[in-house]
Amino acid sequence: MIPRRVIARSLQPSKLIPQFSQCLRQHRSVSTESSPGSSNPAAQNGPLIVDFEEQVKLAASEPSRPSIIPQTQMRTQTPGRPLTKLEEYQRLKASKHASDQIGGILEDHYKPHELITNPPSPRDITLELLLASGAHLGHATALWNPGNQRFIFGIRQGIHLISLDVIAAHLRRAAKVVHGVSKNGGIIIFVGTRDGQERAVVEAAKRAKGYHVTERWVPGTITNKDQLLGDQKLRVLDNLDQEIPLTEEQKLSLKRKLAGKQRDPDRFQVEDTVQLPFGYGAIRPDLVVCLNPLENKTMLQECAQYRIPTIGIIDTDVDPTCVTYPIPANDDSLRCVQLIVGILGRAGQEGMLARYEEETDRAEQIKREQKRLEEAERILEEATTTAQIHKDAEQAASESRQRELERESLISNK
């Protein structure tokens, strides 16, 4: 409820009160009284009184001023009638239109989902990005592993700080390894078994077209692979990760081999793509990326036994010799883990695209070479045909000339 009269008192004398009083007096909305201490000689001591009823009447009598609110959105309201839903929406829309240009614009602020949906590239690694993700924070000094001495920058409040330059260098090296393995068509496994790491691990594996483990690592997956994974089907892929299809002749020969001599080959179903038999055995990975080495020591031991290279996030309390390519960073920060696995997944994707580009260029080069050979064969065939035609024409001309000579000799003898 709007009060009818408002009394404003000035605690200290001000030089602006006479100016405001003169301005308001022109609208006949202020009495001649002003606050105490005023320098206006014509004003008396007393409160400054504003009459809102007269001000509303004067505002109604004045000509209308241009408004920033669109006229199509302004509606008149009947006194005593509540606003309808449409009128409330129109008023809200008008106020929003009037206040759109007010306020600031947020730039370069943190968006948590972008580390998973759109991770940075390895060439976009910066110290500011690693610092913002908390990658430099280690554990307490009482928990440190002496093997991480070369990674530690200093101590603050009893916590080891990891050097950002070392983190960036090791992360770039690991990204190059992932890029090379993916470019050569290797199998990459991303392992992250802690809470909150599942989505980042799955997205990185999809981006690099690898495999992921987000639950408990089954012991013997690598060392006893034939017993655990021997019954799985293996499909044969080309360099573009496409399944190689079987021709009808290959399908028929495979059916005959499965049927033997005493059975009908049409009774057996054969897949449309090339597959390896069940007794071939499981395939070991070419690279394993581990986000929490402390909880996956069994997996790292299996990889070391078969000389499978590994990449791991090494905190200050982890032995850096348990992995092949350590990345010294904070493995307890979910944002740091998402950043690192996102960069490695992006590196795998770039390596895969580079392989696709090379295979496409090689296929185009083979096509161009084949086309050039076909063109050379066509030109050689045309030249051979033309030479044969000339030879036949010369032979026919010599034969006709010989016949003419024989005829002339017969005529001369007669």
Automatic annotation (TrEMBL):
<dbReference type="GO" id="GO:0003735">
    <property type="term" value="F:structural constituent of ribosome"/>
</dbReference>
<feature type="region of interest" description="Disordered">
    <location>
        <begin position="381"/>
        <end position="414"/>
    </location>
</feature>
<dbReference type="InterPro" id="IPR023591">
    <property type="entry name" value="Ribosomal_uS2_flav_dom_sf"/>
</dbReference>
<dbReference type="GO" id="GO:0006412">
    <property type="term" value="P:translation"/>
</dbReference>
<protein>
    <submittedName>
        <fullName>37S ribosomal protein, mitochondrial</fullName>
    </submittedName>
</protein>
<feature type="compositionally biased region" description="Polar residues">
    <location>
        <begin position="27"/>
        <end position="43"/>
    </location>
</feature>
<dbReference type="InterPro" id="IPR018130">
    <property type="entry name" value="Ribosomal_uS2_CS"/>
</dbReference>
<dbReference type="InterPro" id="IPR005706">
    <property type="entry name" value="Ribosomal_uS2_bac/mit/plastid"/>
</dbReference>
<dbReference type="InterPro" id="IPR001865">
    <property type="entry name" value="Ribosomal_uS2"/>
</dbReference>
<dbReference type="GO" id="GO:0005763">
    <property type="term" value="C:mitochondrial small ribosomal subunit"/>
</dbReference>
<dbReference type="Pfam" id="PF00318">
    <property type="entry name" value="Ribosomal_S2"/>
</dbReference>
<feature type="region of interest" description="Disordered">
    <location>
        <begin position="60"/>
        <end position="80"/>
    </location>
</feature>
<comment type="similarity">
    <text>Belongs to the universal ribosomal protein uS2 family.</text>
</comment>
<keyword id="KW-0689">Ribosomal protein</keyword>
<feature type="region of interest" description="Disordered">
    <location>
        <begin position="27"/>
        <end position="46"/>
    </location>
</feature>
<feature type="compositionally biased region" description="Basic and acidic residues">
    <location>
        <begin position="389"/>
        <end position="414"/>
    </location>
</feature>
<feature type="compositionally biased region" description="Polar residues">
    <location>
        <begin position="69"/>
        <end position="79"/>
    </location>
</feature>
<keyword id="KW-0687">Ribonucleoprotein</keyword>
